[in-house]
Amino acid sequence: IHFTGEWVNQSLSLTKMKFVRLIWRTKYFPTFFIKRFKQDIYVKKEMQNEKVMNQNIYKTLNDMTKMLKKHFQNQNIVKAQELWNTIQKTGLQPTQYTYEVMMQGLFQFRKYDEIQKLYEEMNSKKIIPDEIIFNIMLETYAKLENIVGLINIMREMKTLNEKIKPHVYQIALEAVKKKG
Fold first, then answer.
1. What is the CA radius of gyration of the chain?
2. What digits encode the pLDDT tens for the residues 131-180?
3. Residue 7: exposure state from Cβ atoms within 10 A (0-12, 13-18, ≥19)
4. Number of helices and strands (H, E) in the chain?
């Protein structure tokens, strides 16, 4: 079809209108389409960069968590705490697993107060604990003979529909016996 401004066949009025609109837009608004195209490309590149950056952050945090675990396995709490501080300072957001590794390591060294602080920090960041973290907290409160803390953890487990296993009651009863 050659556009001359006049139409030969009036039965194609809808198609003609679309064609005229297309010509009009490209004739008078080419910059709109070019800007929109460049903007779409920019957004796609930013999304790709963010995805790559998130993957790199995940790899970095994952590597740091592995190093944290190794420090505790080597009985080196000082290096583990330095690494934890580095994670905090760099702005990396520890995952549930990172908290779990740190809490397990601190439990080995009987650093119960620090475990409680980590648990509170974890809750403030809205990270939901799993069964392992609940068990660490139960054991921590049992060692501290903190019955109120034990009961609160059990309530939280129930709230999160975490199944309370028989050993949890055993831990609580032993703590009550020790406390007297």
1. 30
2. 999 999 999 999 998 989 999 999 999 999 888 888 888 888 888 888 77
3. middle
4. 8, 0
Q: Is 48 exposed, middle or buried (0-12, 13-18, 19+ CB in 10 A)?
A: exposed
Residues 6+ away with beta carbon under 8 Å from 16? 7
Concatenated DSSP letters of 109-126: TT-HHHHHHHHHHHHHTT
Residue of 80, 76, 82 whose CA lies nearest to 66: 80
Q: Which long-range contacts (CB under 8 A, 24 or more apart) does 83-87 make?
A: 87/61
Question: Cα-flanking dihedrals φ and ψ of residue 3, to 5°?
Answer: -90, 120
CA atoms within a 13 Å half-sphere pointing along the CA-CB vector of 122: 23
Tokens 């609580």 -> residue: 172
